[in-house]
Design goal:
This protein is mainly α. About 65% of the residues lie in helices and about 0% in strands.
Length: about 525
């Protein structure tokens, strides 16, 4: 709600950064205290990567000797300018704009706090966190509709430089609002599929036991409808194109059953879930098109015709590529794009009366600012994402039930959507979408800590996932049935009584609620 600005230095971003500092320290310390096992190794790897990301802008601020600084690529013009002014080159950092690099270093604090924290949430807590995300996303969509109804002078547009004729929600830019709406689609679809699956497992979809699950499916369907209608009204070309990809991904999620998860929808039940979801998706898309027909289609057609004939992203990309090559292999420094780009643009680019604040291609901009280290880091992250996505879609997450694995598959789609959008815009330069990106990364890694210390799901998680109520467990390790008094608890087969007892007392919060 606060991190929708498109540049560093907003007061709302400063508030988030201040709040993130204690959370980063606390959550990072807890991660270091986790026993080194399979899941915690991945979490420790994420911790190490985050520390390297934070260390990069700090390293770019270390003062260098004059002789070494002169030898850096891209500094010739600065040296000549200083010489013409009669000044000597002193000890200077690698970054050509140190203030921008400091602000970039602070900007990574909120997503780091989110990543470290979500890694330590169990599956039930992660689902509750996603509920918060869905609620805020719907509020942003409704806010955008109110902004459109109030017109260009709406006081609910929170940024001075914004898109006055489209919906922007909590953001300054319609493209970033559209990116958030697209992130809602796969998560909401996973929720609908899980709710329908649970309703059909009760025996009859019209039974009283199925009512809560059907209610959840209906609410999630309404969220899907609002998100699609708001996407049409945002009139973002990239948002509209990626919405089609998100809806196709939602259909694929309906068929996703990782091999590590028992299929809770055998036979007719599974085909029933797929059939109902397919019809729901068609109805929702049709209703969204009808709702937005009066105000969206003319604007969308105008945007496509006008912008495609005179799109400035091609000269932006060309100039950014030239600048990145000129500053190889160390880059110009994080947060230096605006100042560096000005020396590579020309009047022929068509931006004579415009202010270029971003490259509209985050991969090129990051390459310019970080050089070879950033290029290698991006390639390594894409390789990790490919491997993690295959693992989640094929085998699922350790100890996760079908619903949690569906949400893990949805998180993979969220990452792909944001990365694809970053190729034509800069959504990950906003604090809000950086936090969404970080939480999606954590959703693809199993929880660390006591909830999965034994490598097996807790009894409570298994029972609740299958819709079976567990009896209350006393502090003496006895189970009390509803009408049979006290009886001794029998450990499950497999020979791990100590771990079983520990989970009976400590993992009661792991059960999905």
């Amino acid at each position: 709600m606060l991190g929708g600005g498109t540049r560093t230095g907003f007061l709302s971003d400063v508030v988030l950064q201040v709040l993130a500092v204690p959370l980063v320290l606390w959550a990072g310390w807890r991660l270091l205290d986790v026993p080194l096992e399979a899941g915690s190794r991945r979490a420790r790897g994420a911790l190490l990567v985050c520390l390297m990301v934070a260390a990069l802008p700090i390293a770019q601020l270390v003062p260098l000797p004059p002789e070494l600084w002169r030898a850096l690529p891209g500094r010739t013009d600065v040296v000549d300018t200083l010489a013409a002014a009669g000044l000597e080159v002193g000890w200077l950092p690698l970054s050509v704009v140190p203030t921008g690099t400091w602000l970039s270093a602070l900007a990574v604090l909120p997503p780091m706090a989110v990543l470290f924290s979500v890694l330590q949430l169990d599956y039930a807590e992660r689902r509750r966190l996603l509920l918060v995300f869905l609620i805020v996303g719907v509020l942003g969509a409704i806010l955008g509709l109110v902004q459109l109804a109030q017109g260009q002078a709406s006081p609910l547009r929170f940024y001075a430089f914004t898109n006055p004729t489209e919906t922007v929600g909590f953001f300054a830019n319609r493209n970033h609002h559209a990116a958030l709406l697209n992130c809602l689609l796969p998560i909401t679809a996973a929720w609908i599929i899980a709710a329908l699956s649970k309703a059909m497992r009760t025996g009859s979809i019209w039974s009283r036991r199925a009512t809560p699950h059907l209610t959840a499916a209906i609410i999630a369907t309404l969220i899907l409808l609002v998100a699609i209608a708001a996407q049409l009204l945002a009139r973002s070309r990239a948002g509209l194109g990626l919405m089609l990809f998100a809806l196709a991904g939602a259909l694929v999620i309906a068929y996703a059953i990782p091999s590590g998860t028992a299929d809770p929808r055998p036979g007719a039940r599974r085909s029933g879930v797929l059939r109902v979801f397919n019809w729901l998706l068609l109805v929702v898309v049709g209703l969204a098109l009808v709702l937005a027909a009066q105000s969206a289609f003319d604007g969308i057609r105008g945007r496509l015709i006008a912008d495609l004939l005179a799109d400035g992203r091609i000269p932006l990309a060309r100039n950014t590529f030239d600048a990145a090559m000129a500053y190889m292999p160390f880059g110009s420094g994080m947060g230096t794009f605006v100042q560096v780009y000005q020396s590579f643009e020309s009047a022929a680019d068509g931006f004579t009366f415009s202010y270029v604040n971003r490259a509209h291609n985050d991969f090129l901009e990051l390459w310019l600012e970080t050089g070879l280290p950033g290029l290698v880091g991006m390639l390594l992250f894409l390789a990790w994402l490919a491997r993690a996505s295959v693992r989640v879609w094929r085998r699922g997450l350790p100890g996760a039930g079908h619903e949690n694995n569906l949400l893990g598959c949805a998180a993979a789609l969220v990452l792909l959507l944001l990365l694809a959008h970053s190729a034509v815009d800069y959504p990950l330069r906003t604090t809000a979408l950086m936090a969404v990106f970080a939480s999606a990364i954590a959703m693809m890694i199993e929880p660390v800590g006591k909830s999965l210390a034994s490598g097996r799901p807790s009894n409570a998680a298994i029972a609740t996932e299958e819709g079976v109520a567990l009896p209350e467990v006393s502090s003496m390790g006895q189970a009390m049935g509803p009408s049979t008094g006290f009886r001794a608890a029998t450990p499950p087969s497999g020979g791990w009584p100590e771990a079983w007892r520990a989970r009976q007392h400590s993992d009661r919060t792991d059960a999905p609620g």
